[in-house]
Structures are given as C-alpha cells and as structure tokens.
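User: I'm putting together a teaching handout on how multi-component assemblies are represented. Below are the sequence lines for each component of a complex, exactly as they appear in our records. Could you produce the 3D structure of the whole assembly as structure tokens, so the students can see both representations side by side? Please keep the chain order the same as the input.
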Amino acid sequence: MAAITYLEAIRQGIWEEMERDPAVFCMGEDIGVYGGAFKVTEGFIHHFGPERVIDTPIAEGALVNAAFGAGLTGLRPVVEFQFIDFIVCAFNQITNMLAKSHYRWGAPAPVVLRGPCGGGVHGGPFHSQNPEMYFVHTPGMKVVAPGTAYDAKGLIKSAIRDNNPVLFLEHKFLYRRIKEELPADDYVVPLGKARVAREGRDVSVITYAAMLQVALEAAEALAREGIEPEVIDLRTLLPLDREAIADTVKKTNKVIVLHEDTRTAGIAGEIAAVINEDAFDWLDAPIVRIASLDTPVPFSPPMEEFFLPKAADVVREARRLKSY
Amino acid sequence: MKSPSHKKRAAPSSRGPSTPAAGAFGIVDCRLEKPDYRVVEVTRNGEFSYEARGDLSAPVPPIRESRYLTPKQHVEIYRWMLLNRRMEAALENLYKQGKVVGGVYFGLGQEGCSCASAYALDKDDWLAPMIRNQGSLLVRGFSPRDIMMQYMAKAGSPTKGRDASSHFGDIYERNVAAPTSMLGELIGVMAGVALGARYQGRNIACMTYIGDGGQSTGIFHESLNFAAVQKLGLVLIVENNLWGYSTPTERQFAIKDLAQRAIAYGIPGVIVDGTDACQVYDAAHEACERGRRGEGATLIEAKMMRMKGHAIHDAAQYVPRPLLEYWQKRDPIARLESYLVKVKKWLTAAENRALIEDVEKQLEADRNFAEASPMPVPEAAAGGVYCDGTCHEIRPKYGLKEIKAKAAAAKIKESQAAVHLK
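Assistant: Of course. Below is the structure of the complete assembly, with chains in the same order as your input.
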C-alpha cells in the first residue's frame, strides 16, 4: 500500500465518514467546486452533491450558528475554516452558543470545526496562527491537534462521531510534508488520549502537532550523545490526558513542554500546573517551556524562523536538564 | 401547544395585502395606522433628555380582520396573551418578595406579537425566542411554572438551575432553541435548523425574533444574508419596540422602517402593527407557509413599544410621557378584548370573566408549585459539560434515508492540485 499524506488522511477520514453516515455533511467557503483552499474536499461535491458539500457566504459567525442549528436536527456538520485564523470571527458563536449549549439546556452540538493552522509556510500574521488556547479555555469544547497522518485520519473520524463541538486543528506545514502507510480498515483514534511517540528515560518532551516532528528530530540528535528523550504527542489538548503526562514525568523526572503556540498562557503553563498537581514529587528539575515568541507571527522567512521553536532549542534545553 | 382547531384555516380572501410572489419583493404595510413622530434628543438647562415630536393625537385604529383565524383561534390567542401578561405580573410580585434570582424581563405591550406569531407555527416548525418572548414559549407548550422556576433558579427548571429566564429550549418535543444573551445569534441557528430539515427532505418554518437594538449587530446581517442565499424558511420577526435598553431607534439605525432591511437581502418584508394580534398572525402565517413551501425567508417588522424598562430595575424614565400615553392606548390585550367582546361578540362578558379567572387559577397553581420546589444541590454545578453519548441520542429528527450503495464503489482520488500556501 502506498503511503499517503497528512492532508490525504484527513480527506479520506471525512470522505469515509460521509459514506458511512448520511447525517454527516460539509459546510464552508470555497469547499464545493473549488474543493477548498488546500483541497481537502476536492471532488467531494461531485460524489456527494451540493446538498452535502455546501459553499457558504464569507460569514464565519453565521456559518457556525447554522451548523449548530443543523446539529439540533440530528445532523453532524463538518465546518471548514479556510484558515483557522478566521475562527475568531466566530468566537462568540463557538464559545457561547456551541460550547455552552449542552450544559445550559441539554442540547448537544455535534459540530466539527476544522481548518489549517500553524506557521512555517510564510503565511504572515493572519494565515499562520495557533488559536487553540482560546478554546482550550472554553468548557464544553474538545480541541484536537494531530501530528501524524495516522492520527489525523483516526482523530477526524472520532471528532465527527463525537456528540460535542470539536475543534480539529490541521497543521498546514504537515499537510503534504509527512506521509505514512495507513491501515485499510475503518480505524479511529480516541479523543483525549496522548501517545508515546518515542520511548525514552532521561527527559520527557511533551508536544503536539507540527512540533512533534521537531521533537523527534531533536530526540534523534540527543540519542547520538547518549540522552534518551521520551516524546509524548498529546494529540488532544482538551480534554487533556493528565494520566499520560504524569506517567512520563514519573518515568523521566525531567520535562520540556514544546509548542508552536506563543509562550504566555500557552498550554505549557497548564501542563506545568498539571505536573505540579499530579507528579510534583517525581520532578528532579524545573519544567522547561519552549514556545514561539510572544509576538504576532512575522511574515519574512528569517523572522518567522527566529519566531518558531527549533530542534536546536530542544537539544540545548535537554542538555541543560541533564546536569540536574 | 395550541389546540387542533388551529388546523382549520379559513380560505384566504382578497381582503388586505398579501406577501408578493417570488422575484417581486417589496414592503407590504399591513397597518391601519401609520404614526408619524420621531424621538429627538433635547437639552434643557444643560441636561439631555428625549422628546417625542409629531402628532400623537390619533384615535386608536380598529383591529384588522384576520384572513385566516377562526373565532375560536382568536380567543385562544387572547388567552395566551393574558397568560403571558399575568404570568409576568406574578413574576414581578415574586421579585418584590425576594424570590427571584437576578432580574425579570417583561414583554408588556408586546404580548400580541409574541403569542400571535408563535401561534402560526406548526408542530414540526421551530421557534427561538428572545428575552421578551415568554408568551411565545407558552404557546409552544412550556408552562408558566417552567418560566417561574427559571427565574427562581430551581432544580426543577428546564435548565435545572443552570441558566435563567427564557434561556431554555427543547429539541425533541417542542422544537424550541434557547437564546444566548448575545443578540442576533438565533437567526443563523434557525437558518441552520431549516437547512437541517431541508437536508432531511422537509421544508419547515423557523421563527425567531430580533429587536430594533439587536438588528444593529453584525451577526444579524451575516445570518439574514445566509438564510436568504440558501432560501431557508426563516421567519424573522423584527420587534421594533422603540427602545434598545435606553437607546431610541434614532440612535440605532438611519432607515425609516426596519422592514426595508428585507429588500437589501432579497427577501419579502412586511410591516405590521405589533399591538394588533390579527395582523401579526396573518403576516406570520403567510411567512410560515412560504417557508414550508420552500420559497425562503421573510422579515416581518412589528411596530409597537416596550411598555416597561429593559428589566425590572429600569424605571424607563427616559421614555417621553406623551409617547408612553400614546402606546398605552394601544394596549394589545385591551384592543383584542374589545374586538372579541364588543365588536365581534365572539366572547361574552361572562365568558371573558371565566377565562380570566381560569388564567389566574392556572398561575396560582404554577406559582405555588414553583415556590415549593427545591433549589439545586450545589454539586449539581459540576458535570454535564459534555454529551457523553448516554445522555442524548443524536439522530436525524425528520428522518434521513440510508445512502444507497453506489454501483461503482466510490474511490477517493488523491488531491494533486495547487494550493494557497505550501
């Protein structure tokens, strides 16, 4: 079997769910005849028809509320944001309408909100952002950020089958850069479960999405000098897999949290608090945060490269932690 | 829920204006009176206030004859309006007794708009109320005790104490979507419900409301445009009650009639006198039928005045006295009562008294029930954030056929196309 890309894995996941369940349909901007800005829904309209692949006006707020309304009738809408940066145009709808509805009045919101996030492709301040923490701070949401093609397919399927609003973050740097062979059968990856991406004993690198690749690259380099990092891929940011976090801390006693989101109030802070609550006695060193600068995402390539965390940062911090 | 008599609709007559055919949308004005005044900001001794300018001396117009309602249905709507008003009076008393948590919102002067519009809905249609549409919730099948317990934050309230006032719904039986406090949000939600029903092969009417204040929001425009583009059976009642909290319409929009917004979106617009339940019903009925025929959305502007403050704490002293008196004469319940008892004689004075007594009895029973019911246990605050799959079953409400197996197994082709950013 041929290896397929991260993007192709997401396409297949949505396609298969639409084949499996007639209640699943897609809404978004330019997703029909054009197939989406990144071609995730390319060809979908020809196969499923315009009733199930709906091109909408450029109105993210109305789009999200309409998806919620369709969900009230028992359907499972999959909403595409052309770039996830535009999700803030629907911030009120997501945080107040969708996320609170089950708690407030017992109405589930089985809506998937998906779109390309992240930098590294010179998209500038409005086509490169990582907005996860706005929504991780919103009770009622689930937030998913796959770092591999296997997980991308398994997680989009779980997200579509879930009865809650799920923000599905597709890292656009990974779309066509990583490939793997996927099982032919209908598999899912459960929401809320992290994964040990590389076993190790000396230091834990807890990360997700595109930074998983950075962590694995750093781990290779560190292994050559005798430091064996354990890499944890969170996969889901909300609900957070606290058990997996505590388990790795108890094993390695040293932690680096690595994310592409900006540093202040990024999920590293939350993870540090979780470790403090669940595994403080096992820590042998301060928890290290590696994240992007606290700035908007700069456009010019040398500046963007400076802005983003790199494997060298992980190597440097892991060496420093070794001395504790 | 309304009685089966609702189903018996008289054939439409040629009397009065009707919404125009597709492609020829203008504004239909159903009113028998077109008040001519404006509210202006004035300053006296360095203090600013509002003043009504124009002729406020016109006599109260007659009720416009309904083209659709039977005599019995008139009386039913009248009863809902009474129940709406007297329930709110009971809530005011409960508030004064310190039994209400937070504030109370009133639909005083707007009962005809809430009740007659919701009365036009069929069982499979949907409603999304705003804060003042407590009457619509009653028509849709909730009881006064539900609303009372919401205000009293009781464990037995529809939201089990998790939210207040009209912030509740029922997606299974009554087809009601709960509002949030943010204005204009329900328009897109109702468009989505209509979309979901159409996806399942049903055209339905999805009614919601917005005020003269709420129509200023961005989401109002996004959502109305969305509904119009998708030709969804949205019935949007724009309740122009002259005040957005304390702000007069002159500070809210620059057009003459909010029904004009309809033209901008390519849907029919209708103006009704919001204190004439018959006009409201007829316009809502036609808009619902249009939605059920799959012809798309309608905007109905109901002109009236909010006869109390924004909420119970607000004495509304910013409202010019002559304007208040003008609208007091146009009380929707007094107008309909006089129409039924004196003009049409469809209700005798004795029957009217019995009806009022019956409403009071119902309210007393509900008030007693609500007062006696317990507050939630503190721990009930936790949990319930997620639907874990055991609490609610998600299945297409209007029925969805299984996808037929394609002759040739559908194979997804790998995407090779150029993309925006690599």
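A couple of points students might notice: Chain B is about 35% helix and 10% strand. Chain B touches chain A through 63 residues (CB under 8 Å).
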